[in-house]
Amino acid sequence: MAEHQPNRLLVVDDDSVTRELLEALLTREGYRVSTAESGEAALKMLGDGLRPDAILTDLQMPGITGRSLADKVRSLCGEKIPILAMSGSEADGELLEGFDGFLRKPFSMEKLHEALTKIGEPLYEKLLPSSSVPVLDAKVYQSLSGSMSREKLQQLYRLCLDDSQHRIGNLRQAVDRRDDAAYRREAHAIKGGCRMVGALELAALAEFIESHGLVANLINRLDELQLACDRLESVLCECESASERTAP
After folding, report:
1. pLDDT exceeds cutoff 90 at 166
2. pLDDT surpasses 60 at 121
3. Rounded to the nearest 5°, which phi and psi values hold at 87?
4. Domains of the chain
5. Is the pTM of this model over 0.70?
6. What SS3 string covers 154-200?
7. Which of 1, 216, 11 has the alpha carbon at shortest distance from 105?
């Protein structure tokens, strides 16, 4: 285990099987593990002097949970203690406020190690779609180009780009109004239109924004959307140039 990684862990989960399994797996990996069956039990252990290097807590438990638990832990242990959230489903951005990382169950020990080593990075950067997502799905583009004229194809992608640009403007207005429903609705529309034409990067970013909603440290994702529009336009220009060179 790397020296900079936490060694003493507190696992908080109301499911006894999950607690026992994680304790066994983490102990085998060389961690020293304490467990608590609830947020209240965890706070009592911390109040009695337990000082883990990091805490893994389930997001959906009876009693104290989520942001409230994170705030109470920090009041007892200070701001520096890393707190990782766990859940069996994707977590909404608002639920993750106050946490240093997120693990979706079931997760591998490799995923845990990665989350622990990335503590200190902004959480939204860890959740962003992978940079390996292609700007444009070549198969979709080729299929569309084979079913319509070049002019119609250009118009289709121009419509997609113009609509995305317009909706990015709407997203910024939703941010100003703190209108989470409108924010997610505009992102959903971008996702749907971009998927139809194979604009994969734009669709992935829009899906991310739709899933996480209006969280303060995610607002600059709109700049990523704008850059993705610029990259799509550049890729489309390259595709059009290649088509002109190979045209009979």
Report:
1. yes
2. no
3. -160, 150
4. 8-121 (3.40.50.2300), 138-246 (1.20.120)
5. no
6. HHHHHHHHHHHHHHHHHHHHHHHHCCHHHHHHHHHHHHHHHHHCCCH
7. 11
55: left (phi over 0), alpha (psi -120 to 50) or beta: beta
pLDDT, position 2? 37
Token representation of residue 153: 């194809």
CA distance 100 to 164: 31
Structure tokens at 100: 């240093």
- Name the percent of the chain lying above pLDDT 70: 84
* Residue closest to 120 by CA, chosen among 100, 136, 134: 100
- Yes or no: say if 66 and 41 are a contact pair by the CB < 8 Å rule: no
- Rounded Cα distance between 200 and 134, Å, is 6
Distance CA 202, CA 227 (A): 9
| pLDDT number for residue 1 | 38
Separation CA 112–CA 29 (nearest Å): 11
Encoded amino acid at 236, one letter: L
Q: How confident is the model at residue 124, as a pLDDT?
A: 47
